Amino acid sequence: MNVTELRASVAAAEPPAGLSLPVQALWWAAKGNWDQAHKLAQQDEGKSGAWVHAHLHRIEGDLSNAGHWYARAGKPKDPGTLDAEWDAIAKALL
Length: 94
Prior knowledge:
The chain has helices spanning 3-9, 21-31, 34-43, 47-60, 63-73, 82-93.
């Protein structure tokens, strides 16, 4: 699966089978369900989950909390648009 296919799959009711927790979280974020996305990101204690978690707090507007999660992910704070960051994360994790 690539980023374009992942974005297109958001039209479905559920994410495609076999996606990692962080990618499922991105999927739910793209669908507009922040709470479900956050729940899934929290379940992954690795750097990928932390990166998605940072993105989610950036969506929320909680930049201080996002900064904490960027640090845990070992990633710099993203100065670009939310959509561009979503694409970059998805590309890296797929």
